[in-house]
Each structure stands twice: as C-alpha cells, then as structure tokens.
Design brief:
single chain, about 525 residues, alpha/beta, Glutaredoxin, 4 domains, five-stranded mixed sheet, about 40% helix, elongated, binds 2-acetamido-2-deoxy-beta-D-glucopyranose
Length: about 525
Amino acid sequence: MPTPKPTSRFIFLTITLLLSLTFLTSKATEDSDDIEELIALDEEQEQQEHGGTHHPKPPSEAEVLSRAQRIVLELNNDNTQMAIDGNEFVLILGYAPWCVRSAELMPRFAEAAGSLNELKNPVLMAKIDAERYPKVASNLGIKGYPTLLLFVNSTSQAYTGGFSAEEMVIWLRKKTGTPVVRVDSIDEANDFVKKHSMFAAGLFDKFEGPDYEEFVKAATTDNEIQFVETSSPRIANILYPDVKSTNLFFGIVKSEPERYTSYEDAFEKDRILQFLNDNKFPLVTFLTEVNSAKVYSSDKLQVYVFAEADDFKKLLEPFQDAARKFKSKIMFVFIDIKDDNLAKPFLTLFGLEESEDTLVTAFDYKSGAKYLLESDPTPARIEEFCSRLLKGILPPFYKSQAIPDNKGADILTVVGKTFDDLILRSSKNIILEIHTPWCLTCETTSKQVEKLAKHFKGLENVVFARIDASVNEHPKLEVDDYPTLLFYPGSNKSNPIKMPTKSSAKDLAILINKHLKAEAETQDMAKDEL
Ligand SMILES: *[C@@H]1O[C@H](CO)[C@@H](O)[C@H](O)[C@H]1NC(C)=O
Ligand SMILES: *[C@@H]1O[C@H](CO)[C@@H](O)[C@H](O)[C@H]1NC(C)=O
C-alpha cells in the first residue's frame, strides 16, 4: 500500500493530537477521540485518492451524513487557538446544547462540511459548545447561538450567507478562493445544472479583460448565488439554452416557471449585483421561516397575498402573470393565512388579524407606506393595484375601527376614518387623549381627562376626544409615546400643543384655560386685521 503523502492539515492534526495527549493525560479521551477519527478519515481519503481502498457499493445517505459529522472538528480549551492559527480558513459554529436553532443548523453544517471536503475546499469546519467552553467562545466573539464565524488567517469575519447546506457551501467557496466554478465539458455542465437550484452563468471567450473582472468581482461580493463560467458556447447552451452570443453572455437560472433571465446591461459589478437582487426570487415567493429574513431584506416594492393554501392555488397563475409584467420592480410573496407566526404580524398592521378571507396587500419599505386591495382580487384588479403602486398613486392604507356612535358622549371617540372630520376640520378647540390598551399609565390619564371633560362641560368651543392608537392610524397622527395629550387650537390644527400627562387635573385645567385664552386672543387679532 502506498504511504499517504502527509498534508499540512494532517500534520497539524497530528500535532494537536500529540499535544492533547501530552497535556491532558487524564481527560484527553473524549476530545482526542474526535481528532483520531478525523485523522482516520483523512487517512481513508488519502488511501482512496491513491486507489488503496475499494468500496463495493456506494455509502447510504445516513452513512454519508455520519461521515460528514466527523469532518467537523469539535473545539475545546486546548485545540481552538491552534485550529485557528494553523489553518488559512476556519468556519466555527458556536452552539449551545439546549438551543433549538443550533440543533437545526448542526446537520446542515455537517452536510456542508461533507460537500466541502469532497470538493477539496481548504476550509476547516469546526464547532464549539459555547456553554461548556464559555471563555474560549467569548474570546472568539461568540455572543449568541448559533453563531457562525469565518477566520481567515486568524482574523474573524461575520458569516453572511444562507443557512441551508447548499448556501453554506456556496458562501464558503466564494470566501475561500472559488468565487466562480468553471465547467470545461458537457458532462460537467449537465452535472452542475442537476446540482444547483439557482445559479448565475457567464460565457467569456477569454477569462480576462474588464468585463470578466467585473463578473468575478460580482461573484465574490454576492453572498448567496453560485456563479459558473465557461468559454465554450456549446457548454454555455447547456447551462442556459438559447445563448445568443458566442463570446459574451450572462444570465440567471432558477428552478421555477420563469427559469431563465438574461442580463442586458453593461458589465459592472454593482449593476450585475442589482440585476441578481431584482431577479433572484421566483415570480411568487412562498414565505417560510427559512427564507423570511431574505424576503424582508429586499428593498423592492412588495405585494403580499394572504390566503389559505388551497384558495391560493387558483390565484397563483394571475399572480405569476402580474409578476411577469412587473418583473424586477415588484416582488410577490404568498403567506399562508393559517400560519399565525408568519401571517399575524402583517395582518395586525391592517387591523385584520381575525380575517380568513384572501387579502392582497403591498408595502413600500422606502416610504413605510402600506396598501390594501379593498375588493375581490380579480386578475384585472391585481394588475391595476400593482400598476398604481408602481406609479406611486395608490392611496396608502390607514388602520381604523368602525365609526362609533358618539351621541351624548362627554368625550368623543375618534377613529382613523373620523380623524379628519372630528379633529382637523372642526373649528372647536380640541383636547385629544391618545392611548393604547397596553400602556400602563394610560388609565390614570383617562380618568384625569374624564374629570376635565366634566369640569369644562357646557363650554361651546371646547371638545374632549380620545383615540386608541393601536387600532387607528392617520398620517397627521404621529405619536411615539403613550399616553399623549394634545391641545388643538380651533383656528389652526396643523400644530397641536403637547400637554403634560403627569400633572394633576387642577394644573391641567389651568393650562387648558391658558391655551383657550391665547387662542381667543389670536382669533381677536385675526378679526382686527380684517
Ligand atoms: C493568508 O496568509 C498567507 C501567508 O501569509 C498568504 O499567502 C495568504 O494569501 C493569506 N490568505 C488570505 C486569504 O489572505
Ligand atoms: C398654523 O401654524 C403653523 C405653525 O405654527 C403655521 O406655519 C401656519 O401658518 C398656521 N396656519 C394658519 C392658518 O394660521
């Protein structure tokens, strides 16, 4: 049997093992077992590479996974620094045994380690139980669980990739010297297409020059899309059928009805990245816990459809049609209305958390505006809604309770829909109490306002009002503190005066009288001027 050539990693691990045996004679067993396994694995691979061992049948999936798990080095007090200093690239997963998200990530991390190992990627994948080794973890910069950190020549950087095994592999290859995969044969191209659900393909007659350099810069900067390149038009046509050019082409490929999108712009890094950002999502994205962070971070206009999964089946096609029309400008997202975790926070924004009907909504994250399609979503209405959203002429949605009956009330209840009429267009002086059900001191203020309303009862030009800001909105009602008391002078509603909420009813009454007097003087002066 040929003697395996020792790799640098092999030597490093051997040293680590020897050191841990020397210094940890009593408690070395557990920790060094992993390293022994690792070495055994490395040896096994070396042997395979040299044709030393035969595998009569391919290993099962479980075998592959358990093998992959052994490729992850378990860090402890003694081997961490050496692992970091002895390797150009180390990806460390900081976890806690009780943490559910750590537990979910662990098998994907191991699977990624296995794939990277097969690809002969130089990264060392390691994990540390941050609860068992808190000092080491804190020195590494691990503050929560799970944390992923990439050390490059002993300097750490945050992990910015996705959390599936495939996404981890893509991100790590980008950061460890393989931002672009090159395919040189028809077979490699077919294999590549089979293995990747999304990729960005480039055809260059030569792998050099300004266009190519920008392409590589984009591949390196992007965090989630696998780039692939070729110089052969025939191979390019396997990656992306109907490549029109024979010397320069770039396009994105996805596993969905709108599979191919070609790039028509100049080869500049930022434009390429923008193109990928605009086109990386499918026509309609089904929101899940896994992709939600990615979806929320998109800066495009977004149309969200809330429906039961069965009902949405009928709507999928109209929404895909709309998505084609507004491609790269509006993002379309479907949320299962029965999925409380995902749907409720959005429905609450519209005061529709009890709704079971299909809802079509939209968000403009730049302006913070939200929109609601307030009729049945027919294909024509969906298209009009999107078109007006894009033109910026869709009226924003403001939450409002139903209009209440205020007959005989000392204090008017104002809702979003009546704010204009009862406050802004009224000629009276208004004292408005703004409250929410969850604010602790709101009740005290409410009682004060009730006393004041009784005290000022009979004064024609004074109105007391209150609004529940948790279920009512108005563009002119911008309050960040509850409770808030505002005095709106009758003659000018554009600048309400904020009143203290912690004063006694008596002090508030004095203050209101002062404001009323000032307002009366303003009105007298206005009359004199006429
Ligand atoms: C890490 O350091 C080595 C030796 O100094 C150097 O050759 C290599 O380029 C460095 N790696 C990175 C990614 O900077
Ligand atoms: C109302 O008050 C604002 C701010 O003090 C002022 O700019 C505006 O001109 C006033 N409007 C009227 C009609 O007096």
